[in-house]
Amino acid sequence: MKINWKTPVISLAIPLGVGGLATLLSGGMDTYGQFNQPPLSPPGWVFPLVWTILYLLMGYASYRVLVSDAPPAAIRRALLFYGIQLALNFLWPLVFFGLQQYFVAFILLLVLWVFIYLTMYSFGKIDDTAQNLLIPYLLWVTFAGYLNLGVALLN
To answer: How many CA atoms lie within 13 A of 16 on its CB side?
Structure first.
């Protein structure tokens, strides 16, 4: 039995690539230590570790949806929401770190949160595991919203 590795590898590479490119273009965590930060702010090294795990979970969830036996229209809709949230995810560090527009970034994060939820909902109609794989992502973005708002208010 021959295993087709192309689809799962691409599914994992897409969110990792999006995150990596956003970090590269925004300057990433270079300015993180310079902010006045709210309580519970983790050290800078936590973010790349957590985001790598979250991107891998996203990629695997999208793979499960892509190869499911669900109707093609449901798969397209779920992957559309996934693509939109991934685009918003890409924009956030550009706005926050690159442009230093902390309140705008917070609004963007709220919109991202909504699209993560819509992605989870649409994934859940296709594959429960795919939906559950996105729970840590939604929780982390909720925490990121707290951190973002704290930075916006303190700086």
So the answer is: 13
**pLDDT tens-digit series, residues 35-75:** 899 999 999 999 999 999 999 999 999 999 999 999 999 99
Residue located via tokens 């706005």: 95
DSSP 85-140: HHHHHHHHHIIIIIS--HHHHHHHHHHHHHHHHHHHHHHHTT-HHHHHHTHHHHHH
Distance CA 155, CA 140 (A): 22
| Cα-to-chain-centroid distance, residue 50 | 11
Alpha carbon 152 to its chain centroid, in Å, reads 20
Whether this prediction's pTM lies above 0.90 is answered by: yes
